[in-house]
Amino acid sequence: MRDDVPEQEACDARCDPAIAGQDGHKTTFLTCQRIVRGFGLDEETAYRLLCAWNARCDPPWSERELRRKIREAAERGTMTWGELRDREREA
Length: 91
Known about the structure:
mainly alpha
C-alpha cells in the first residue's frame, strides 16, 4: 500500500459530501472505498485525506464513525486495491 499520494489527487472535489437522509451512509462508504482501496492507501492516510471531505458532510461524521467507515471500506469494499491509482498511471 502507498501513503505518498498527494492530497489533491486522492481526495478531489468531485467526491460528493454525505448528507443525512440522502443515502449519506452509502455515499460515505463509497467515498472511503475510493480513497482507501482505489488508491491503495493505509487506513491512517485515508483518514487524514478524508478529513477535508468530511467537513463538507451534513452533518460531519465523528472521528470514530469515519474511522469505522474507512475500516469497513478496506475490509468489505469490492474495488480492486490500487485500481484508481493504476488507472491514472496508465493514462
